[in-house]
């Protein structure tokens, strides 16, 4: 462990203090406990990183535990997606566990509570139970079933488990205190009947334990030393401890629940329920739509594991909720891809460029460096000829002095190629430019060392060779919401703030070397941004997704509003 105390975050300090107070270092154990009711999102990356980084720092095991107590919402699809995402981030769990592994033990402990007079079966409706809860300032009232004898409760509970009662008719409640200032302590439900098969236990159970009852006991069974969760669980801590206090434990050790602030990201929502809504409403194509803040969406968008880990580490571990600006996430991926992504040429909105003095029918191969940030990436050869494509907005018939791209009579450099000068345009019947004609200086080839090659021109533009370029589908994304905190409005739904222009699909012309890239490969389209080969891309149907632009244009856009 590091000796620089000042750099420890508050959870690390808690652990350090526990170790100094005599907690055995070899008993440290952590877990990441997702409910398999959806895909993981960027907020979960923070929880994952906190737990796994503690494991690494203190050399302690970290379990992946599925909190699978509600078969109505959970599925094996979600279990598999979660495993894939955690692995992709680069973390290795010690053991894969499931709360459902403990259903037998939880059942035994529930009967123990009943026999101790600490739990009872309530046959009131959920409305009646809710009406007796009271308010934060007003005590609740006792259920008429609160004083049923342990024997009678036990018999009823066994009947519940045996499927003799319908969903919604009976519930097992802990008998704590209906006037506790903590509403969660007012005889919480610990088992309910759900007449559904479970993805792991099949039809064995028709009663399922509630989160609070399950979580602490699962931590205890696994020997978790520090059970870390987000702040909204703080009021649950009393209950967590009450349950552990009242079961017979095999050894004296007691997991400690501690809370940290959720990670909130601007311009999006991070709640599985809300993300599921976007899929249901067909706002996005699925959990892995590249506009989603899910790990799978970010992966498909071209985010790297390193960029996400770096992002949550930069955002930090705090005790107070805040909203992290989406531009930090974009900064982190740009920084990582700048080092890793090969530079290639693609023209998103092509217009034909004809070099009138270039020999007809000739093609030459020009050398282009793959990554100026990394010499070891080498170079490639790009075909060049008389007929090219350039970006439509890299040409203007007339332009002022500040326009450094191609215009009539002025010179620009074609990246990795020659200096050209605009000469004339060809227009269609409606007056739209369909071709730009230019001349080139044969002595100005990039890297040739000639005097002409070193001539300074104001602009450099990218291009692709018409004959050898390939058509590709390119998905351009913008933020999914046009409000910084879409789910923080009292009067409006988060769905009222969906940006209807968050996806633009175009056909681009790309250089031929891109045909063999594997899905998931990150590249930089020079001058345009970082892109990734989509998972559905094939040799015959290339698809690229825009990850992020080269600069933070969004901040500029919103300031100009
Ligand atoms: P959601 O509201 O998205 O469904 P959840 O808390 O219900 O989130 P779980 O799968 O139960 O999702 O959470 C697993 C772990 O991840 C929990 O420890 C939870 O505290 C943590 N977690 C969930 N969302 C965030 C977030 N935005 N920031 C940090 N940690 C989070
Ligand atoms: Mg949850």
Short structural description:
By secondary structure, the chain is an alpha/beta fold. The protein has three domains: 3-262, HUPs (Rossmann fold, 3-Layer(aba) Sandwich); 272-342 and 472-560, Ribosomal Protein L25, Chain P, CATH 2.40.240; 351-462, Ribosomal Protein L25, Chain P (Beta Barrel).
Provide a descriptive summary of the structure in words.
- The protein starts with 9 loop residues before the first helix and ends with a helix.
- It has a 7-stranded mixed beta sheet, covered by helices on one side.
- Helix 2 (42-57) crosses helix 11 (305-315) and helix 11 packs across helix 12 (326-340).
- The radius of gyration is 31 Å and the shape is elongated.
- With 561 residues, the chain is an alpha/beta fold.
- It has 3 domains: 3-262, Rossmann fold (3-Layer(aba) Sandwich), CATH 3.40.50.620; 272-342 and 472-560, Ribosomal Protein L25, Chain P, CATH 2.40.240; 351-462, Ribosomal Protein L25, Chain P (Beta Barrel), CATH 2.40.240.
Total individual domains: 3
Q: What would you give as the CATH superfamily of the largest domain? A: HUPs
Strand content: 15-25%
Helix content: 25-40%
And the CATH topology of the largest domain? Rossmann fold
CATH architectural designation of the largest domain: 3-Layer(aba) Sandwich
Helical/strand content category: alpha/beta
Distance between the termini: 49 Å
Q: pLDDT below 50 for ≥5 consecutive residues: which ranges?
A: none
Q: C-alpha Rg, in Å?
A: 31 Å
Largest sheet: 7 strands, mixed
Bound small-molecule species: adenosine-5'-triphosphate, magnesium ion
Strand order of the largest sheet: 12-27-28-29-25-26-13
CATH class value of the largest domain: Alpha Beta
Mean pLDDT: 95
Please provide the count of β strands: 29
């Amino acid at each position: 462990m590091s000796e620089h105390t000042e750099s420890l975050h508050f959870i690390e300090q808690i652990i350090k203090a526990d170790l100094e107070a005599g907690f055995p270092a070899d008993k440290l154990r952590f877990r990441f406990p997702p409910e398999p009711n959806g895909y993981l999102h960027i907020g979960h990356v923070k929880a994952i990183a906190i737990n796994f980084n503690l494991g690494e720092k203190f050399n302690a095991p970290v379990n992946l535990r599925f909190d699978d107590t509600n078969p109505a919402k959970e599925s094996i699809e979600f279990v598999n997606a979660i495993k894939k995402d955690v692995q992709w981030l680069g973390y290795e769990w010690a053991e894969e566990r499931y709360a459902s592994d403990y259903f037998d033990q939880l059942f035994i402990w529930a009967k123990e509570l009943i026999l101790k007079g600490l739990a009872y079966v309530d046959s009131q409706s959920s409305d009646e139970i809710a009406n007796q809860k009271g308010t934060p300032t007003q005590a609740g009232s006792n259920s008429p079933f609160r004083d049923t004898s342990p024997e009678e409760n036990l018999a009823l509970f066994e009947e519940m488990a045996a499927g003799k009662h319908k969903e919604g008719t009976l519930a097992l409640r802990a008998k704590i205190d209906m006037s506790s200032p903590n509403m969660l302590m007012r005889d919480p439900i610990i088992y309910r009947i759900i007449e559904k098969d479970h993805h792991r236990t099949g039809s064995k159970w028709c009663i399922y334990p509630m989160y609070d009852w399950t979580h602490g006991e699962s931590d205890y069974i696994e020997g978790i030393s520090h059970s870390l969760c987000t702040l909204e669980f703080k009021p649950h801590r009393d209950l967590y401890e009450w349950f552990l206090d009242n079961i017979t434990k095999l050894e004296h050790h007691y997991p400690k629940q501690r809370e940290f602030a959720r990670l909130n990201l601007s311009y999006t929502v991070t709640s599985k329920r809300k993300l599921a809504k976007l899929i249901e409403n067909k706002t996005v194509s699925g959990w892995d739509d590249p506009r989603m803040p899910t790990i799978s969406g970010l992966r498909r968008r071209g985010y790297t594991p390193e960029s996400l880990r770096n992002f949550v580490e930069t955002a930090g571990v705090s005790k107070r909720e805040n909203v992290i600006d989406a531009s930090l996430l974009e900064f982190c991926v740009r920084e990582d891809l700048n080092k890793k992504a090969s530079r290639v040429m693609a023209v998103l909105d092509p217009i034909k460029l004809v070099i009138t003095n270039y020999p007809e029918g000739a093609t030459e191969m020009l050398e282009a460096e793959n990554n100026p940030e990394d010499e070891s990436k080498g170079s490639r050869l790009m075909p060049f000829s008389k007929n090219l494509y350039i970006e439509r907005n890299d040409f203007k018939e007339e332009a002022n002095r500040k326009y450094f791209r191609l215009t009539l009579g002025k010179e620009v450099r074609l990246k990795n190629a020659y200096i050209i000068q605009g000469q004339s345009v060809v227009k269609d019947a409606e007056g739209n430019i369909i071709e730009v004609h230019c001349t080139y200086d044969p002595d100005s080839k990039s890297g040739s060392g000639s005097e002409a090659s070193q001539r300074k021109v104001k602009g450099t533009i990218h291009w692709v060779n018409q004959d050898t370029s390939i058509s590709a589908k390119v998905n351009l994304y913008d933020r999914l919401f046009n409000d910084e905190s879409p789910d923080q409005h009292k009067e409006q739904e988060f769905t009222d703030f969906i940006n209807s222009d968050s996806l633009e699909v175009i056909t681009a012309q790309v250089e031929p070397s891109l045909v063999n890239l594997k899905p998931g490969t990150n590249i930089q389209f020079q001058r345009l941004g970082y892109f990734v080969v989509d998972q559905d891309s094939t040799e015959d149907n290339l698809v690229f997704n825009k990850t992020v632009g080269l600069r933070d244009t969004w901040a500029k856009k919103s300031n100009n509003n």
